[in-house]
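Need residues for this backbone.
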């Protein structure tokens, strides 16, 4: 059976239900106020933990966005150079490309404009574009064009690798040259 208790304090009147088996010391209804502090501490801890997780996801998504932006730019720059080289090979053959068997490297600014065809520290360089024109072994009248574009890396690692870096692009085509 529940009993109603009427408690008058300094500024307000409180009515509470108490069980006859309530074991609160002093019998006051406000004696469990320490639980509210524990609840607040737990709630704040959960909020901080969730916020840290969301911040980490935000950082990961920002990194993925930057990588995708570089990859998209690299694909556009690689295909542009591939089409340019394909047009030269079709119109002039390999005679129009002096020294075509060696890889050529170009430095590009963030807008894709050619800065220089030499390697080295260059302010404003954003991408390395490496291209190579060669003849596949044992095949006549066919030229292979390969272009790889990747963001400039301070550690080096330039050249036509087996695979493009995750934020770069590598394209290749075969052109028939009569």
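Answer:
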């Amino acid at each position: 059976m529940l009993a109603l208790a009427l408690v008058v304090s300094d500024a307000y009147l409180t009515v509470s239900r108490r069980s006859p088996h309530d074991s609160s010391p002093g019998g006051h209804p406000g004696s469990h106020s320490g639980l509210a502090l524990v609840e607040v501490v737990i709630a704040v801890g959960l909020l901080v933990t969730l916020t840290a997780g969301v911040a980490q996801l935000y950082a990961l998504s920002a990194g993925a966005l930057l990588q995708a932006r570089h990859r998209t730019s690299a694909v556009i720059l690689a295909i542009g150079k591939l089409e340019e080289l394909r047009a030269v090979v079709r119109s002039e053959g390999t005679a129009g490309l002096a020294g075509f068997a060696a890889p050529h490297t170009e430095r590009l600014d963030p807008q894709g404009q050619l800065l220089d065809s030499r390697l080295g520290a260059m302010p404003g360089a954003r991408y390395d574009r490496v291209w190579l024109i060669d003849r596949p072994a044992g095949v006549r009248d066919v030229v292979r064009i390969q272009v790889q574009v990747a963001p400039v890396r301070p550690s080096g690692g330039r050249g036509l690798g087996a695979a493009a870096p995750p934020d770069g692009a590598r394209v290749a085509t075969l052109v028939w040259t009569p």
